[in-house]
Design a protein that fits this description.
Order of helices and strands: HHEEEHEEEEEHEEEEH
Strand order of the largest sheet: 4-5-6-7-12-11-10-9
Number of strands: 12
Shape: globular
Distance between the termini: 162 Å
Number of domains: 1
Structural class: alpha+beta
Largest sheet: 8 strands, antiparallel
Helix content: 25-40%
Radius of gyration: 41 Å
Number of helices: 5
Length: 229
């Protein structure tokens, strides 16, 4: 019987020793780190209106002709279409000073050209005239050489019509949308001009002066040819 207390005491000591022994802890697994996504660069800059339309040859009344926009600064005009082949002093329909820049166009007839009038006061585009250039056209298909019938069918009755007393002098149709159409004696489109629609009557009077000058010039050439013959 004296051994039993000793055995119990030994068992108690062993259990206490086991509790006192520190347990080995396993090292924590390393945390998985996701690869950082590459930073996206800034989005490409959107092209400007003039750059986006550089190959466009639409005539939009009151707005533009191809890449040339009404109100475009002169510096931007030179950047977009280059330097003109000539320039002359001119006047806006209001009488204020302007400069008329002439550009050669590969699609123009021998006497055709692209004429851009720039306000002298703020150096911005006032009007764009496409004289005898077939490649420029409206969305409706009106271009150099089109018939008067197509013009009226596309744009309706003009808000202003100017015609000389002589039936041989061409007519000028002007629309409030900002488009002037000059017709020759045969009723075919000779030129198209984009301008601010608010100046419709003033522009049409200016077109009339151009028509009269052309008519006088044609008559003079005819008389000279007759004299030579």
């Amino acid at each position: 019987m004296s051994r039993l207390p000793c055995i119990l005491a030994a068992a108690l000591l062993l259990s206490l020793a086991a509790c006192a022994t520190p347990k080995k802890t396993e090292p924590a697994a390393p945390k998985k780190t996701e690869a950082a996504a590459p930073k996206a660069g800034p989005p490409p800059a959107a092209p400007s209106a003039a750059e986006a339309l550089i190959r466009d040859k639409f005539i939009i009344p009151g707005e533009r002709a191809g890449p040339i926009l009404l109100g475009m600064p002169l510096r931007k005009l030179v950047e977009v279409v280059g330097e003109p082949v000539s320039s002359t002093a001119a006047h806006l329909p209001s009488g204020r000073g302007a400069l008329l820049y002439r550009y050669a166009d590969p699609d123009a007839s021998p006497d055709g050209a692209l004429l851009v009038m720039v306000r002298e006061a703020d150096q911005t585009v006032y009007s764009i005239q496409l004289d005898s250039i077939e490649s420029f056209h409206t969305r409706e298909g009106v271009r150099y050489g089109s018939s008067e019938a197509l013009v009226r069918a596309s744009f309706g009755k003009p808000q202003s019509i100017h015609q000389s007393g002589s039936g041989e002098i061409a007519r000028a149709y002007c629309y409030l949308s900002g488009l002037a159409v000059r017709l020759n004696a045969s009723g075919q489109v000779q030129s198209l001009t984009v301008f601010p629609g608010s100046d419709v009557r003033k522009i049409c009077k200016a077109q009339r002066r151009i028509n009269v000058a052309r008519g006088n010039g044609a008559a003079t050439r005819s008389r000279r040819q007759g004299a030579v013959a």
